[in-house]
């Protein structure tokens, strides 16, 4: 019997029981749809994480203070005070480094007239806006002369500017007070949003690091150093060069422990992506259970179909049909249910992902390989769970089948 005849007979058999066929497909539709939706949302979350971290700066490398040992006691991460402005000067001569920005962090009350706000004070230099890819909304960032002269100037984050001066107001040239210092506003940064760590970057103000060190905190060491690699393809190599230069500057012997920590954006991307992948795998595993349930449903219905059509099968075998013809017919029926259900499930999953994307403003990315994989898995489930009922039908004895009531 030709394959076209087998398909025709199988389709007629499925058409005789439309409701049962539709309900059987429903399990496959839900299973495949759930897999597609979970993968889309998981990949969307991963893409959002990568975009958020990449948006934090241009090819950024961050150097943090490391641990230090005092009297045999190892202090925690960030306790070293050996990260100095001189280290930033050393890094400016490292091959592959485009920009270097010193960093000093502190929190202070910023006062403007009757308004005030406790903001994060960031002391840095003119390269900061290049490293972070952060343009101005109003005015300009402070100048190199301001850094050299430890000038009392400040650039406000947009949230701080709105709280102190009101929304859509350019406060450039206005005066604010930080501690007991009168400081001139030189500009306002564009909105940046949350950083990869969840910090509100718009709730910061920016001053020359020399001003912060000499007049705000009184310390000599830096909180961190930001470095921008000139080429995005050589970030890892540049990070190693930075590490080697700092080891020499800090006179750390071979085999000695670093008193600083170098972190690239790729490190943060890898960490956050691993977390997203773990959640995606968990959700996909749960969705895969739905596929298994759908497959078991196909097997159950096919076994019922074999029982109902025992006399029909016996008659076909008695008039010359081969066991392979019966086997092919039932396999095709199971395959049609799973493939059509899988196709509808892909459409359902795509629609569900788009709905969540629209309703919850959640990013959704549906890779083509996940669609192909889901469709292939659906077809494979149909063959796998349909084989036993088909094999059982093909093995029926014609005489016993014709006697079946």
Number of strands: 12
Q: Widest sheet: strand order? A: 4-5-10-7-9-8
Question: How many structurally independent domains?
Answer: 2
Approximate shape: elongated
- What would the average pLDDT be, to the nearest integer? 81
Beta-strand share of residues: 15-25%
Low-confidence stretches: none
Count, helices = 13
Helical content, roughly? Answer: 55-70%
Quick one: biggest sheet?
Answer: 6 strands, mixed, barrel
Q: Cα distance, first to last residue?
A: 28 Å
Coarse structural class: alpha+beta
String of helices and strands: HHEEEHEEHEHEHEEEHEHEHHHHH
Radius of gyration based on Cα positions = 34 Å
Short description:
The chain is an alpha+beta fold and 405 residues long. It contains 13 helices and twelve strands.
Characterize the structure shown.
This protein has 405 residues and is an alpha+beta fold. The chain has two domains: 3-52 and 270-403, no CATH class; 81-258, no CATH class. 55% of the residues lie in helices and 18% in strands. It has 13 helices and twelve strands. The protein has helices spanning 3-16, 18-54, 85-91, 128-131, 144-148, 158-165, 209-217, 235-249, 265-308, 310-318, 323-360, 368-394, 398-403; strands spanning 60-65, 69-70, 73-74, 97-112, 115-124, 136-139, 153-156, 175-178, 181-189, 204-208, 224-229, 260-264. The strands form two sheets. A six-stranded mixed barrel has the order 4-5-10-7-9-8. A two-stranded antiparallel sheet has the order 2-3. A hairpin with a 2-residue loop joins strand 4 and strand 5 (115-124). Helix 2 (18-54) crosses helix 11 (323-360), helix 2 runs antiparallel to helix 12 (368-394) and helix 11 (323-360) packs antiparallel against helix 12 (368-394). The radius of gyration is 34 Å and the shape is elongated. The relative contact order is 0.19. The model has no long low-confidence stretch (mean pLDDT 81).
């Amino acid at each position: 019997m030709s394959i076209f005849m087998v398909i025709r007979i199988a389709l007629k058999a499925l058409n005789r029981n439309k409701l049962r066929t539709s309900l059987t497909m429903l399990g496959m539709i839900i299973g495949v749809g759930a897999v597609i939706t979970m993968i889309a949302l998981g990949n969307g979350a991963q893409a959002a994480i990568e975009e958020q971290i990449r948006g934090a700066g241009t090819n950024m490398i961050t150097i943090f203070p490391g641990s230090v040992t005092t009297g045999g006691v190892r202090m925690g991460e960030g306790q070293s005070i050996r990260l100095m402005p001189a280290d930033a000067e050393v890094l400016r001569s490292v091959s592959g480094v485009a920009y270097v920005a010193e960093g000093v962090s502190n929190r202070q009350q910023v006062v403007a007239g009757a308004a005030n706000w406790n903001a994060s004070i960031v002391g840095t230099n003119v390269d900061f806006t290049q490293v972070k890819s952060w343009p101005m909304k109003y005015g300009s960032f402070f100048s190199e002369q301001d850094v050299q002269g430890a000038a009392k100037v400040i650039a406000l984050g947009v949230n701080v500017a709105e709280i102190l001066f009101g929304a859509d107001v350019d406060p450039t040239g206005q005066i604010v007070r930080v501690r007991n210092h009168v400081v001139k506003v030189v500009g306002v940064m564009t909105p940046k949003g949350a950083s990869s760590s969840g910090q509100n970057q718009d709730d910061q103000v920016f001053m020359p690091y020399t001003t912060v060190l000499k007049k705000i905190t009184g310390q000599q060491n830096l909180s961190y150093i930001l470095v921008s690699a000139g080429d995005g393809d050589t970030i890892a190599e540049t990070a190693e060069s930075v590490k080697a230069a700092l080891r020499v500057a800090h006179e750390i012997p071979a085999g000695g422990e670093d008193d600083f920590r170098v972190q690239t954006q790729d490190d943060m991307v890898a960490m956050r992506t691993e977390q997203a992948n773990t959640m995606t795998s968990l959700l996909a595993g749960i969705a895969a259970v739905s596929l298994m349930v759908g497959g078991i449903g196909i097997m159950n219905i096919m076994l019922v179909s074999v029982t109902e059509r025992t006399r029909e099968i016996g008659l076909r075998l008695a008039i010359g049909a081969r066991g392979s013809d019966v086997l092919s017919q039932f396999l095709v029926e199971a395959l049609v249910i799973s493939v059509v259900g899988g196709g509808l499930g892909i459409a359902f999953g795509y629609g569900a992902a788009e709905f969540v994307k629209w309703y919850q403003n959640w990013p959704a990315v549906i890779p083509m390989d996940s669609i192909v994989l889901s469709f292939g898995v659906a077809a494979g489930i149909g063959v796998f769970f349909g084989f036993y009922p088909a094999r059982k039908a093909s093995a029926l004895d014609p005489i016993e089948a014709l006697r079946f009531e």
